[in-house]
Design goal:
The structure is a single chain. By secondary structure, the chain is mainly β. A 4-stranded antiparallel beta sheet has the order 4-3-6-7, with no helix packed on it. Strand 10 and strand 11 form a beta hairpin. The longest helix has 14 residues. The chain starts with a helix and ends in a 9-residue tail after the last strand.
Length: 246
């Protein structure tokens, strides 16, 4: 009788375990580093629910702000914490505190099974906010891309030959080992960049836009290319879409 009781208990515990969410996305992207909307949308998938006929009864979603100022990335400050009874897994709009420009965030999500009432272990993903305008002016009622004024503080890159052959180079010093680094570059349709002799990205041609009205930029994680001390940045511009006429 004791053996039967133990077997039944074990089987019941096994059935209560459910898979964690998978395919975590922010604005349909996996761990993006260029989110430029004040209300990004979160999505996930439920992988092969173990219980027949089960659906998501509820979810718990938490967004943490990350900090690298101490020399090590930590994600502890809660920016948004929501627990909701809902079967929605697509396009959950952010409703937390205002997102900050050029900042990393971590988010976790877990779900509760409608049949077993068991809750999964949370899954974790990341996203980064691009260069935004004044964070205090963000209007959470409008799902619009923010227009940045931070580019006005950017530094021009030049060279001794004043851009001979459309190539530019500059050097800069980093006093301590870097823990986070992003390269924001707008090449009007075509640009290649190198840091310390290594190509920063593999894409060849940017998207076509009406350059008189809008200019797109690329954001690249270049932490692995940087070193403590002197570093060199090289840029080569091409004609690209901007040179087209007619």
């Amino acid at each position: 009788m004791l053996l039967v009781q133990v077997l039944i208990t074990c089987c019941a515990a096994a059935r209560a375990q459910i898979s964690s969410p998978s395919r975590l996305r922010v604005e349909y992207l996996e761990n993006p580093i260029t989110i430029d909307t004040p209300t990004p949308r979160f999505s996930w998938a439920l992988s092969n629910p173990e219980t027949r006929g089960s659906t998501q009864l509820a979810y718990d979603l938490v967004v943490f702000k990350c900090d690298s100022k101490s020399g090590k990335k930590t994600c502890q400050d809660i920016a948004w914490n929501v627990s909701k009874t809902s079967n929605q897994t697509l396009n959950i709009e952010y409703e937390g505190v205002a997102l900050q420009s050029d900042t990393d965030y971590m988010w976790t999500v877990s779900w509760t099974d409608s049949v077993t009432k068991a809750t999964s272990v949370p899954s974790t993903a990341y996203f980064s906010v691009a260069i935004l305008s004044n964070p205090a002016s963000i209007d959470h009622s409008a799902h619009d891309t923010l227009v940045s004024n931070a580019w006005t503080n950017s530094a021009w890159v030049s060279s001794a030959n004043n851009g001979s052959l459309n190539t530019y180079r500059t050097t800069f010093d980093i006093p301590a080992p870097p823990v986070r680094a992003r390269l924001y570059i707008a090449g009007l349709g075509y640009a290649k960049s190198w840091i310390n002799g290594e190509l920063t990205d593999t894409h060849e041609l940017g998207q076509f836009v009406t350059f008189q009205k809008r200019v797109l930029y690329d954001c690249v994680d270049v932490l692995a290319l940087l070193q403590e001390g002197e570093n060199a940045l090289g840029v080569m511009l091409g004609v690209g879409w901007f040179s087209l006429s007619g």
